[in-house]
Amino acid sequence: MIQKIKKVLPGKKKETNNLPTRITNDTVAEHREKVLAGGRKLKYPLQYTKRKLVRNTILISLGALVAFVVLVWVQLYVWRDTSEWAYRVTRVVPVPVAQIDGEYVRYSDYLLYYRSTVAVLENQGRSGDDLSKDRMKFQQEQAMDRALEDAYARKVAREHNVALADDKQVNDRIEQQREESGLSESSYSTAINDHLRWTMDELRVAMRNTILRQDVAFAVDEPALKLSETIGERIAKGENLQALAQEFGSSVEYQDGIVVPKDNSDGGLSIAADNLEVGKTSSAIKALTGDGYYFITRQTSSDSEIAYSYLKVPLTVFKKDFTAAQDSDKTKLFINIK
Prior knowledge:
This protein has about 350 residues and is α+β, with helices and mostly antiparallel strands. It has helices at about 1-10, 30-80, 85-90, 105-125, 135-160, 165-180, 185-195, 200-220, 220-235, 240-250, 270-275, 315-325; strands at about 95-100, 105, 255-260, 285, 290-300, 305-315, 330-335. A four-stranded antiparallel β-sheet has the order 3-6-5-4.
């Protein structure tokens, strides 16, 4: 009976000591396969987990990107945000604020000019809350007009192979303005920041845009160039500015009896006049104002002041073409500033 019960009840199995099999030249391949099989048991679940992590990371990143794009779109095109945050975003992300004749207008350019005009008003003691809606609207329209003109100048520049000003040209122009102001480099930088809320890098952006507009205006105005050449030839023959002004009438602008300090900030006209002998007339000068060709006659001489008269051949073609494009259906604004 006892023996039957022993047969029915499971007995305690004798533990076997699984000692490692001796590896020989004949069994090394088999042993290697066993080791690799054990590693594969851990490898496949890890691969699956890695793919899942990568997939989830991609989905989360795409979701965050879509949320950021929607937020930026709402801030710029619905709420028309003009804050520092919006400006910094548009400096990094080149989103458009308008289009003129097929050329996109950079949102960052619009905010650059708008924020500087508001800064000027704030320096005059008017906070943003004190400005009327009409005044704010006017500032927005002014900033948009300038940004549109910059974009149109870039388009025309490509068509006429007018190159952008390089860093040296931009820095030289800024340095000339600084010297005319009589400020040191640090004081000039502080003044720009205080009055316009611009850094020196932002000033360089605005200056590069200004130089391009001026270069394009000279490049496209063939009538002004031909008239300046004609006047230059007549001056070389001894004719004076006043007589030429009467002959060409409204095609030119004449100003007599200008008396200013020798270091006057007038686009370089005073410096050019100071380099002339009394009674002498210069050849055509492209002043830094970029609005035409100037002919200068030196009138008197003193230690501190300079007197001269000038005849200007104004540039009109670029401005006329820009106004026509701006007033046509070729211009589309992506934000409502009305």
